[in-house]
Design brief:
single chain, 280 residues, 2 strands, 13 helices, two-stranded parallel sheet
C-alpha cells in the first residue's frame, strides 16, 4: 500500500523517498545483470569460443566484407594478409581465466539486460513527466534498445575485427612474437562493443537535450563542421590509427548525427504546435 501511495503522489515525494525508490530500481537492475551473467558463466565455453574469440579467426565473416569495402574506397590495408592474425592468447595469472570468465559474464549481463535496465530507468523518471511528455516518449525503451544493440553489433562486427587486424598485424621487428594476455584481448572486444553501443544512443541523447531546450536543429546544423571534427577524433580514439578504419567507423556516426538533426527538428515543431494550442 505504501509503495502504491508513493507512486500515486510522485510529485509529493520527499528526497529520502526518491532515494528509496532509486535504490529499489538499482537493486532490480543489479539482480537482472547477475541472473543473465550467471547464465553466461554457465555457458562460458560457448561465450568465449564462439563469440569472444571469433574475431581471432581469419574466417570471421567481417574480414571478407571489410576487405571488399576497403578496396572500394581504394584502401587495401583492410584486408587480411598472410600471418596478420598469427598470434596466441594466453593467461599469465593463476586466476586469469576465472577473472576473465566473471567479468565477461557481467559484461554480457549488462549488454543483454540493457532493455530491462532502461525500463527501470524509465519507471524512475516517468512519474515526474507530464502526460503529453509521456505520450511523446512512447517507444523510448524499444528505440533506445535497438540503437544500443545496433551499436553493439557494429562494435563487434566492424570495430573489433578492424582493431584486431591492425594491432595483431603491426610489427616493429620479426623477432618479436605476438602473445597477448587474455585480459588485453577481452578488454579490446568489450571496449569496442560498449563504446559503439553508447555512441549509437546519440539520437536519443539529442532528443532529450532538445526537449529541455539545450539543443536546437539550427545549432546542430551550424556546428556540423565541428561535429565532423569530433566524430573523426572519436573514430581515431576507438579505432587503430588507420585511415580506412577511421573512415569506415566515421560514416555511420555522421549518419547518426544527421538523423539527430532530423529528430531535433521534429521535437521543436511539436513543441511549437503545443504552444500554439495552449495560446489559442
Amino acid at each position: 500500500m505504501a509503495s502504491k501511495k508513493i507512486k500515486k503522489n510522485a510529485g509529493e515525494m520527499s528526497f529520502l523517498d526518491h532515494l528509496e525508490e532509486l535504490r529499489w530500481h538499482l537493486i532490480r537492475c543489479t539482480l537482472a545483470v547477475v541472473i543473465i551473467g550467471t547464465v553466461a558463466f554457465i555457458f562460458r565455453t560457448f561465450l568465449f569460443d564462439v563469440i569472444i574469440f571469433a574475431p581471432k579467426d581469419a574466417d570471421f565473416i567481417s574480414y571478407d566484407i571489410l576487405c571488399k569495402i576497403s578496396n572500394l574506397i581504394g584502401m587495401e590495408k583492410g584486408c587480411i594478409g598472410e600471418g596478420d592474425l598469427d598470434f596466441i592468447v594466453q593467461s599469465r595469472k593463476v586466476a586469469g581465466q576465472f577473472n576473465a570468465a566473471i567479468w565477461t559474464s557481467i559484461t554480457a549481463g549488462i549488454v543483454v539486460g540493457f532493455p530491462y535496465i532502461l525500463y527501470e530507468f524509465w519507471k524512475f523518471i516517468s512519474p515526474g513527466l507530464y502526460d503529453n511528455e509521456r505520450k511523446s516518449s512512447r517507444g523510448f525503451i524499444i528505440i533506445a534498445s535497438l540503437l544500443f544493440f545496433m551499436g553493439a553489433f557494429f562494435g563487434y562486427y566492424v570495430i573489433t575485427p578492424l582493431s584486431v587486424n591492425f594491432l595483431a598485424g603491426f610489427k616493429i621487428s620479426e623477432i618479436i612474437l605476438n602473445e597477448f594476455d587474455i585480459d588485453s584481448f577481452i578488454s579490446l572486444v568489450r571496449a569496442s562493443v560498449l563504446a559503439a553501443g553508447i555512441i549509437f544512443e546519440l539520437p536519443i541523447i539529442i532528443y532529450f537535450l532538445t526537449k529541455i531546450g539545450l539543443v536546437t536543429p539550427t545549432f546542430l546544423r551550424k556546428n556540423r563542421k565541428y561535429a565532423l571534427v569530433i566524430v573523426l577524433i572519436l573514430s581515431a580514439i576507438i579505432t587503430p590509427p588507420d585511415i580506412s578504419t577511421q573512415v569506415i567507423v566515421a560514416v555511420p556516426i555522421l549518419i547518426l548525427y544527421e538523423v539527430s538533426i532530423l529528430i531535433s527538428r521534429i521535437v521543436v515543431k511539436r513543441e511549437e504546435k503545443r504552444l500554439k494550442k495552449q495560446q489559442a
